[in-house]
Structure to design on (112 residues):
């Protein structure tokens, strides 16, 4: 008998600069979705820039401007396979209060 794979779609919604990406990536790291070597490499790079708290955001913040300014400019879809669940899609979003309700309604029926 073939075991059915579990698929999770996670959309993180919150106001701008409320730590959605840091929280999501830290949780992913704790669940085994991000390797220690990656976090250690970003920790070294962020400490040189005196921005150690941003080591988790650099996993998805790929643009130079995002890393220098400490903000997320573009959304990023990331697939990872932690040891607790078989597959997850994570989509941290950048929203303002006025569009949060629309995001909640849209993401409840999203399929990515």
């Amino acid at each position: 008998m073939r075991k059915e794979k579990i698929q999770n779609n996670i959309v993180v919604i919150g106001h701008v600069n409320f730590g959605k990406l840091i929280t999501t990536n830290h949780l992913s790291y704790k669940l085994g979705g991000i390797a220690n070597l990656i976090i250690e490499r970003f920790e070294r790079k962020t400490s040189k820039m005196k921005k150690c708290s941003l080591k988790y955001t650099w996993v998805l913040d790929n643009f130079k401007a995002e890393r220098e300014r400490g903000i997320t400019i573009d959304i990023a879809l990331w697939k990872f396979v932690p040891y607790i669940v078989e597959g997850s899609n994570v989509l941290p979003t950048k929203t303002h209060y006025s569009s949060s309700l629309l995001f909640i309604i849209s993401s409840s029926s999203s399929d990515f």
About this structure: The helical segments are 20-30, 36-48, 64-69, 97-108.
